[in-house]
Specification:
Largest sheet of chain A: none
CATH architecture of the largest domain in chain B: 2-Layer Sandwich
Radius of gyration of chain B: 17 Å
Order of helices and strands of chain A: HHHHHEHHHHHHHH
Shape of chain B: globular
Structural class of chain A: mainly alpha
Largest sheet of chain B: 6 strands, mixed
Number of domains of chain A: 1
Distance between the termini of chain B: 18 Å
Low-confidence stretches of chain A: 1-5
Largest interface: A-B, 64 and 46 residues
CATH class of the largest domain in chain B: Alpha Beta
Number of helices of chain A: 13
Number of helices of chain B: 6
Oligomer: heterodimer
Radius of gyration of chain A: 19 Å
Strand order of the largest sheet of chain B: 3-2-4-5-6-7
Number of strands of chain A: 1
CATH architecture of chain A: Orthogonal Bundle
CATH class of chain A: Mainly Alpha
Strand content of chain A: under 5%
Mean pLDDT of chain B: 93
Distance between the termini of chain A: 45 Å
Mean pLDDT of chain A: 95
Helix content of chain A: 55-70%
Strand content of chain B: 25-35%
CATH topology of the largest domain in chain B: 60s Ribosomal Protein L30, Chain: A
Low-confidence stretches of chain B: none
Helix content of chain B: 25-40%
CATH superfamily of the largest domain in chain B: D-3-phosphoglycerate dehydrogenase, domain 3
């Protein structure tokens, strides 16, 4: 048995759901219990540590919504644009989705400007989980404790992906980063909206399925283009996937098999498309021109 | 399991823009600094794979130097670490390596001063998590998941038992242990992961044993 692999530890999504169902508790609670065990500490300590992460996320969103710009000037200001568009009241998709997009973008604009963020699961994909959480918190009347639990739910699903597949763009492409983040957020949204653990798993499966194959092709090797807008779409994907799962729609391919498929796709993905800035958007004429402009080298 | 806690997934709190290329790089640099034990006078950093291709855009260079300057992942001095290093007279060079390596995010750090030098290879495996895979030519696998002891010693019979005896006497449980050597009878290195942080008295007692050259601890 693996070191630290106690009987209550989960190795995949199926086990995670089963543990929650067996004890009639939430997925967040299963994750919290495991953390208490692993760190040999109190519930209060674990909750406080996550609360600190939540505060960092909140500050990053506030900062992004007040307007930032990266050193290159390639990103920044789009979160503000989206907020004023929402205020106009004349939009096509729903307000919660657009709000999630704006807050996801805000976070990643701060990240691109080398501000302080909380990696969820990575910095390049840090906008998706907080973006969706802060978009629904008023609508769902979430307490601070429920917001912290949202992060434990998202973390539990991310924990499975990180251990069974990858959360690294260099190892698995953007599907491993924004894809994982979208799946994590979708699962947590379902719990926050009162869905079951099994529905959380369906939401993650639906979300990640629609991120499969997404490559990591950062222009000039920066975490700006297309990363910021991929977070926007990751957040939108998470919101829609959560709604689908809450509507009772299920994935024909179980969540764990979707995660495994993501891992295998990542392994067979060409190196040029795994965070090397050599393919995809980085290799477009404009991408190469920008690389030359900032670093004097060809992508 | 590579990832042991939810705080590897939701976290770390860090300066952007990349958990693997910025936060992970800062952590690798900081382990080198911790093991060296003082501010080095110079640093030579080689980047491989994705690190070599994107280190400027991802801030890997400023992060790894920030780590060598003992900055944490969320230290707001990280973006200006290169000028801070210049101010204190630290000589820095970066090398973009072409060689293929097992992991795409690999960095080799050589730091030193007029007295000593240290060479370390670290990989950044995603979400800010790192592993140290080589130290001064010794292969090892330090996950950073647990506090650890690194013991440089002469490759002599009984040395491992002597170290284990002291740990047993102090009721310190060994979670994982490995020994590596370059050549028979020469220098060797023990990497011992333990369950709880150790205090300096443990190191002092280990240093008094025969054949022990250096004992360092990594705290969590």
């Amino acid at each position: 048995m693996l070191r630290g692999a106690k009987s209550s530890m989960f190795r995949n999504v199926a086990e995670l759901v089963r543990l929650a169902e067996k004890d009639s508790v939430s997925i967040a609670e299963i994750m919290i219990r495991q953390e208490i065990e692993v760190h040999e500490t109190t519930r209060q300590t674990i909750m406080e540590q996550m609360d600190k992460n939540l505060s960092v996320m909140e500050r990053a969103i506030e900062r992004g919504l007040s307007g930032v710009a990266s050193h290159t000037g390639l990103t920044g200001g789009d979160a503000v644009k989206m907020q004023s568009y929402i205020s106009g009241g004349n939009y096509l998709s729903g307000k919660p989705v657009l709000d999630a997009i704006s807050k996801a973008v805000a976070t990643n604009e701060v990240n691109a400007a080398m501000g302080i963020i909380c990696a969820t699961p990575t910095a390049g994909s840090a906008g998706v989980v907080p973006g969706t959480l802060f978009a629904v918190k008023d609508q769902l009347n979430l307490t601070r404790k429920q917001m912290v639990e949202f992060l434990f739910t998202a973390g539990a699903f991310g924990f499975v992906v990180a251990n069974n597949a990858s959360i690294s763009g260099a190892a698995g492409g953007c599907q491993a980063e924004v894809g994982s983040a979208a799946g994590m957020a979708a699962a947590a949204l379902v719990q926050a909206a009162g869905g079951t653990p099994a529905q959380s798993a369906e939401a993650m499966a639906i979300s990640l399925k629609n991120m499969l194959g997404l490559v990591c092709d950062p222009v000039a090797g920066l975490v700006e283009v297309p990363c910021v807008k991929r977070n926007a779409m990751g957040a939108a994907n998470a919101m829609v996937s959560a709604d689908m799962a809450l509507a009772g729609i299920t994935s024909r391919i179980p969540c764990d098999e979707v995660i495994e498929a993501m891992y295998k796709i990542g392994q067979t993905m060409p190196v040029a498309l795994k965070e090397t800035a050599q393919g995809g958007l980085a290799a477009t004429p404009t991408g190469q021109r920008l690389a030359a402009k900032y670093f004097g080298k060809r992508a | 399991m590579k990832y042991r806690t939810v705080f590897d997934i939701i976290g770390p709190i860090m300066i952007g823009p990349s958990s693997s290329h910025t936060a992970g790089a800062a952590k690798i640099g900081r382990v080198a600094r911790l093991l060296f034990g003082r501010q080095p006078k110079w640093a030579k950093v080689s980047f491989y794979g994705s690190f070599a291709q994107t280190y400027q855009g991802h801030g890997t260079d400023v992060a790894i130097i920030g780590g060598i300057l003992d900055f944490d992942t969320f230290d707001e001095r990280i973006p200006s670490s290169l000028s801070i290093a210049e101010e204190i007279g630290m000589d820095i060079s970066f090398i973009e390596e072409k060689a293929n390596v097992d992991h795409p995010n690999t960095a080799r750090i050589v730091i030193g001063d007029e007295v000593d030098q240290l060479e370390l290879v670290g990989i950044s495996i995603g979400g800010g998590k790192i592993e140290i895979i080589e130290l001064n030519g010794f292969q090892l696998k330090l996950s950073g998941n647990h506090p650890a002891l690194l013991i440089l010693h002469q490759d002599r019979a009984g040395t491992i038992a002597a170290v284990a005896n002291i740990l047993a006497e102090l009721s310190i449980n060994i979670g994982h242990m490995e020994v590596a050597r370059k050549e028979k009878g020469q220098m060797a290195m023990m990497t011992i992961e333990v369950d709880h942080n150790l205090d300096n008295d443990v190191l002092k007692r280990l240093m008094k044993l025969p054949n022990i050259i250096q004992a360092t601890k990594i705290i969590q």
